[in-house]
Design goal:
Number of helices: 6
Structural class: mainly alpha
Helix content: over 70%
Strand content: under 5%
Largest sheet: none
């Protein structure tokens, strides 16, 4: 088991530093797929996903049984959450100056409904996690996306500092 943990941490560090290096090489305004071939963008996406999996697995200290039950549930939750976020963005990317008061009120109501749906998704997901994770792991999970984004930012800053 200790060997597995050491290998996992080593792999995490390897992926994490490699990801930071890759993010640092992007110029301003270069998002995924911009200024590069689709194969390279796909590789970048795969590396980001691998870094996310390693970060979550390490931070949550998932054992093999937990990981096998956690990831399918988490991925389904994220897909549903991302769909709600896309809907909210579509609603809020409208020019209020070109809308009537009635249309604006409808958009506000729809946005609130999507935000409520996101809240319901999170509550349901956290209920499912009671059967998978220990209380401390569930508590860590609640802020893990924010922690991962901070980790990526730090890796990017470190990469820029080496140039």
């Amino acid at each position: 088991m200790n060997k597995l943990i050491v290998l996992g941490v080593a792999w995490f560090l390897f992926i994490g530093f490699g990801l930071g290096e890759a993010l640092a090489q992007r110029g301003p305004g270069q998002g995924q797929g911009q200024g590069r071939g689709s194969a390279e963008a796909e590789t970048q996406s795969e590396r980001l996903e691998a870094a996310r999996v390693a970060f979550f697995t390490n931070r949550l200290a998932l054992n093999a049984d937990q990981a096998s039950r956690f990831w399918p549930l988490y991925n389904t939750y994220q897909e549903q959450r991302n769909a709600e976020i896309r809907e909210i963005r579509a609603l809020t990317n409208r020019d209020a100056n070109k809308l009537s008061e009635k249309e604006i009120n409808e958009l506000i109501e729809r946005k609130l409904q999507h935000q409520q749906a996101m809240q319901t998704l999170e509550v349901s997901f956290m209920q499912q996690m009671k059967d998978v994770l220990e209380p401390k792991q569930r508590f860590i999970l609640m802020g893990i996306n924010r922690d991962f984004m901070r980790h990526l930012s730090e890796m990017q800053r470190r990469g820029r500092g080496r140039e």
